[in-house]
Structures are given as structure tokens and as C-alpha cells.
Amino acid sequence: QVQLVESGGGMVLPGGSLRLSCAASGRTFSNYAMAWFRQAPGKEREFVAAISRSGLATAYANSIKDRFTISRDNAKNTVTLQMNSLKPEDTAVYSCAAKFTGSLAYSASYTYQQVAQYDYWGQGTQVTVSS
Fold first, then answer.
1. Could you read off the pLDDT of 83-106 as tens digits, one per residue?
2. Which of 32, 80, 95, 111 is the most buried (most CB within 10 A)?
3. If DSSP codes are grouped into helix, strand and coil, which group holds residue 52?
4. 3-class DSSP state of 27
5. Backbone angles phi, psi at 93, to 5 degrees
6. What's the confidence (pLDDT) of residue 108?
7. What DSSP assignment string belongs to 59-122?
8. What's the CA gap between 114 and 50, in Å, rounded?
9. Using an 8 Å Cβ cutoff, are 80 and 22 in contact?
């Protein structure tokens, strides 16, 4: 089992920034690809950003590209989402997710963007962008 706990959400003005963190525990963190997803009221959960288990590869949704940055620290078992130039349409519950990929070299640069590909989820943190 992997436990994921998000933090850093809140309310911010349009154009502002927030930094979300996800702390993982329970298994070898470096064997897991990680991602952030979000879900706005009345909408399906959608992909935001992903990072490979090594941190060598990242992927972003077009809607947030060049505004958000995903990173990870395998020594601290954390994954972070830096969100800049926030817009009202970024308002949602943001959740981190973990997918077991093992420790073989070939998986070091794989990222995953589908909800169904992930094995573990955090409870989510609310981000509200409003004036």
C-alpha cells in the first residue's frame, strides 16, 4: 500500500501562484511514476501533469503547459506541482496519484496520463482561483 497526502491548496487571485505537495509513504517511492489530476464540480477528473519514477521525464496537459511545473524528490518521497499564472478555470480539487512501475531501467522515463493507469490516490486538496 502507498499512502498519499496532498497539501498546499487554497484560494488565490487570478494571476497568482500556489505550490502543491504530495507526501508518499508505505513503499519505495522511486519505483512509482507520479501524477497530478484535477476535478472541477460537475466535470470528470482530468490529467494535469505527470513525472516518471526517476524524474527524467515529465508530461503536461495542454491547458496548463508553461504555467505549471511538476517535480519530485525521491530522497524526501515528495512530488510537487508549482502553479503560476492561475486562472479561474484552474479551480478544482487536485489529487496526486502513484503508479507502480518497478525499478528496471526501461521504466525510468515513462509517464502515464490516464486515470485508470494509477494504483493509488490521495484525498485531494482544493484550489480556488477567484477575485
1. 999 999 999 999 999 999 988 877
2. 32
3. coil
4. coil
5. -90, 125
6. 82
7. EE-TTTTTTEEEEEETTTTEEEEEE-S--GGG-EEEEEEEEE--S-GGGGG-----GGG-SEE-
8. 10
9. yes
- The residue with cell 527524467 is 56
Which residue type, as a one-letter code, is found at position 38? Answer: R
C-alpha cell at 126: 482544493
In the numeric block, the cell 497530478 is attached to 36
Which residue reads 494509477 in cell numbers?
118
Residue 103 and residue 30 in contact, taking contact as beta carbons nearer than 8 Å: yes
Beta-sheet strand order (sheet of 78-83)? 3-7, 18-25, 78-83, 68-73
Residues 6+ apart with CB under 8 A from 70: 34, 35, 36, 49, 50, 51, 58, 60, 79, 80, 81, 82
